[in-house]
């Protein structure tokens, strides 16, 4: 599975050449974005709060999920139904990001590949199929790409352009 940047603002999620969805940023500052799935579902991603420290994911004005960076430098993805996932850097030197479920099982790994010629990231995605069907959910996978881009921007000290 791959998430490839088609330009500096759009990532396409594909598996075996089949498109599963897109992550489209409003601009190069990559805070506001939209996720479009092949099932015609559309989700909006916007930062909220005084310092924009949390990010809401909505569908037709209804909150579906929330992303928040915790004090350990991990991004917590919380769904309204109580499901919760944590995105963290696997090891600093290897630069791989993993998403764990509440049981601390690694269900998704995002391996960033930086394209120096076009100056943006592409991701190889490996997921572990467990009891939890969310690991194959395109929304969770694209939120993982969004969270990884956000994490990279926060850790690099930049607020733009690390896609």
What is the CATH third-level topology name?
Porin
**What is the H-and-E element order?**
EEEEEEEEEEEEH
Q: Helical percent range?
A: 10-25%
Domain count: 1
Assess the beta-strand content as a share of residues.
over 45%
Instruction: Give the strand line-up of the largest sheet.
Output: 1-2-3-4-5-6-7-8-9-10-11-12
Main sheet specs: 12 strands, antiparallel, barrel
Uncertain stretches: 159-163
What is the gyration radius calculated from CA atoms?
14 Å
Structural class: mainly beta
- CATH H-tier superfamily: LURP1-related
Label the CATH architecture: Beta Barrel
Shape annotation: globular
- Count up the helices: 1
Summed over residues and divided by their number, the pLDDT gives a mean of 85
Notes on the protein architecture:
This protein has one helix spanning 138-156; strands at 2-5, 10-15, 18-25, 33-37, 42-48, 54-59, 62-69, 75-79, 84-89, 97-100, 106-115, 120-127. By secondary structure, the chain is mostly beta strands. It has one domain (2-156): Porin. It has a twelve-stranded antiparallel beta barrel. β5 and β6 (54-59) form a beta hairpin. The protein is globular and about 35 Å long. Mean pLDDT is 85; it is low at 159-163.
In short:
With about 160 residues, the chain is mainly β.
